[in-house]
Amino acid sequence: MGNLNKEIRDGDHPDITEERLKSTFDTHKMAAQIYNSQRAADRRNEITSAVLKIPELQDIKPLPFLSREEKVEEAARKIGILSEHLYDLVNVNDGAELYHLNNVVIGGEGNPLALHGVMFIPVLQAQATDEQKKKWLYRAMKREIIGTYAQTEMGHGSNLRKLETTATYDKATEEFVLNSPTTTSMKWWPGNLGKSTNYAVVVATLIINEKDYGPHSFMVQLRDENTHKPLPNIEVGDIGPKMAYNATDNGFLKLNHLRIPRTNMLMKHVKVEKDGTYIKPPHAKMSYSAMVHVRAHMNNTMAYFLASSLTIAVRYSSIRRQGHINPKEPEVKVLEYQTQQHRLFPHIARAYAFSFAGAETVRLYEKVKKDMESGETELMADLHALTSGLKSVVTYLTMQGIEQARQSCGGHGYSMASYISEIYGIAIGGCTYEGENMVMLLQLARYLMKAAKAVKEGKKVEGLVGYLSAPDNRHSLIDRTPEKSYDTYLKTFEHIARQQIFRAFDKLEKMLTSGLPHSEAWNKCSVELTRASRLHTRLFIAQAFARRVHDVVDFHIKEALDDLLHLHLNYELLDVASYALEDGHLCGEQMNFIRSELYRSLGKIRPNAVSYVDAWELSDMELRSVLGRRDGHVYENLYKWAQNSSLNRTDVLPVFEKYLKPLMMSARKNSKL
Ligand SMILES: CCCCCCCCCC/C=C\CCCC(=O)SCCNC(=O)CCNC(=O)[C@H](O)C(C)(C)COP(=O)(O)OP(=O)(O)OC[C@H]1O[C@@H](n2cnc3c(N)ncnc32)[C@H](O)[C@@H]1OP(=O)(O)O
Ligand SMILES: Cc1cc2nc3c(=O)[nH]c(=O)nc-3n(C[C@H](O)[C@H](O)[C@H](O)COP(=O)(O)OP(=O)(O)OC[C@H]3O[C@@H](n4cnc5c(N)ncnc54)[C@H](O)[C@@H]3O)c2cc1C
């Protein structure tokens, strides 16, 4: 049968092997839960093994030692080699396999095809007519052309209806004239726009006969397909270094009265006829599909970033010994400290929770995508609400978790050798891209306020907001019933979300009744509204976690997930408990119970801590972290890693002769005077 933890190897650091031997579950079976099937988990490992056999696909040196230009070049080099091996390595129609291949070979800092795969192809799939697909999509899929999604401008990202780039229809020539009239109208941020791509789907405000029809998508060729030089009337370039994600050339684009054929507007759902007649789409927001696509997948990418930093932190905490719990005994692994456990374990639970919530979201997304192909749009509002809330809450909590992981590694966490700072920099971009978090929470709030209104009017609401119509207990039953089901916790989360949604609703209604215009009242209630959205979303995450645990069949996996869920529910409830204390739903005695359950959970998780992170099956190649090495041999490799520093190439740097020596000489001369 072998070891339950599949990462055990001879020669590993004994402290980490000791942890792995304690595992109560099979880590590879757990991987099947995380990646949604045993087959998917197997494929990940097969892909990693195959990649390890191709020497040209290995990093030329640790990425933190590369300059920005080298990072861009290195990612492009690997993309080139990957193209040769792609069909042998992965099923190119499987997004998860492609994503994994990217993470192993290139990592999260980006590559020239990042936006091509994540947005350019999806937007063509969803919004191009069959004829347009023949012209661009199939070429894009074969990588004959490389594209991006150019929407955000220097002056506007959140408010799409105020994009300044115009696409004015010229009936006489049957062309659109694309123009960036101001500095602020320049496209600013699109990934890979700067240097890599030769095509873009540009989102511009459609004008026909001087009437504004709002944002629409247009295919624009940016560069010559052979020379890669920008085409006439196009200025394009890189926006400069960012906090992280620097292998990606986020770019700017200025269009100077550029003419494109009428047929370059993506017209699957919406049309502009030759004579300028506008035929509207079945749903006004169908053109937002590429954003919804990314938002729907972001839970899983965030879960992955969070799990990566926790894998690093937990493994390191199992070999790092410092201080004593019992002064008579040797120094302990820092993982023994309750503070360290409290700092890390709840985030492990969140990574699992985000992955399970992510799987449900992707399922809904796939359904809506299929519906949209036939013009069916009924579930679009539900999906938009769900993805808006999740995108905001999950990115924010991921940011918190990664930072805790970094701090938990002490000084070495701050070194790029941990790689956590890079993961952090990449992940927090998610709080901003695909809709700034507050803006998206307020989108969900619109949906919640509609549901609250319906309930107040005596109507029954269903689906994601069904709990607003369901009976509520005045007092939480946590610690009040003999039965220890998660339902009592979930009911308490429901109560908290419901109370906050109606609190925000009542406040809004009061202001509206007092005569305040809707937009002003909305702004004055917006902090309460975002709170409602967060609580609703955190309820969904907890429910998704509970649903998954409920469905698991394997006893040991179920038991291990059950422990994590228990920790999650108690930790999350403590985090939002003030809402339930305010109206007496929870009392002080119950708070004590929840706290003691939390501490009990930490103890229960402790023996499996390394196995919970190992179950993500993140190879050394993809983690790129000295602290997170699978074998636990951190210290000697930290020293080796530092040898890569270019500052170590010579014992004496030129700055000594140039600046430091004169400084010290002059100081010595002065002290002699
Ligand atoms: C395999 C895949 C792996 C994926 C991996 C991910 C890794 C990512 C790596 C790549 C890195 C970065 C990529 C980043 C790319 C970008 O950032 S692209 C740019 C993204 N930009 C945004 O997200 C802009 C945010 N703003 C908006 O989306 C809209 O402006 C906003 C929705 C905020 C408002 O739109 P309006 O048109 O102004 O609409 P409103 O008046 O507010 O609302 C009117 C009604 O419309 C409903 N609505 C809005 N959007 C949708 C939608 N998408 N679907 C359905 N319904 C929608 C809204 O709820 C309102 O309904 P109501 O009137 O209340 O009933
Ligand atoms: C790493 C990265 C990659 C990106 N990639 C792309 C890409 O490939 N393609 C692309 O088109 N774009 C891309 N973007 C741009 C990104 O989508 C936008 O930056 C994002 O949508 C936020 O818009 P903004 O910059 O206009 O923020 P702003 O709206 O200016 O936000 C500033 C502040 O104003 C607040 N605010 C704004 N509006 C409201 C409101 N209505 N109510 C309350 N508060 C409000 C926000 O909450 C925030 O606090 C990328 C950005 C990053 C960071």
What layout of secondary structure does this protein have?
Layout: H1 14-21, H2 27-34, H3 38-52, H4 68-89, H5 95-105, H6 114-127, H7 130-141, E1 147-150, E2 166-170, E3 175-179, E4 187-188, E5 199-208, E6 211-221, E7 234-238, E8 251-255, E9 258-261, E10 271-272, E11 278-279, H8 289-319, H9 338-373, H10 380-408, H11 410-414, H12 420-428, H13 437-456, H14 487-513, H15 518-524, H16 526-551, H17 555-582, H18 588-605, H19 609-614, H20 620-623, H21 635-642, H22 654-672
Parallel strand pairs: 1-5, 2-5
Antiparallel strand pairs: 2-3, 3-9, 4-8, 5-6, 7-8, 10-11
The structure holds ligand LV4UQ37V and flavin-adenine dinucleotide (FAD).
Ligand LV4UQ37V binds at residues 95, 99, 114, 118, 149, 151-152, 157-161, 191, 285, 288, 291-292, 294, 297-298, 301, 380-381, 384, 433-435, 439, 443, 446.
How would you characterize the overall build of this protein?
With 673 residues, the protein is α+β, with helices and mostly antiparallel strands. Among the domains are: 147-280, Butyryl-CoA Dehydrogenase, subunit A, domain 2 (Beta Barrel), CATH 2.40.110.10; 290-459 and 489-613, Butyryl-CoA Dehydrogenase, subunit A, domain 3 (Up-down Bundle), CATH 1.20.140.10. 54% of the residues lie in helices and 8% in strands. Helix 8 runs parallel beside helix 10, helix 9 (338-373) packs antiparallel against helix 10 (380-408) and helix 17 (555-582) runs antiparallel to helix 18 (588-605). It is globular. The termini are far apart. It binds ligand LV4UQ37V and flavin-adenine dinucleotide.
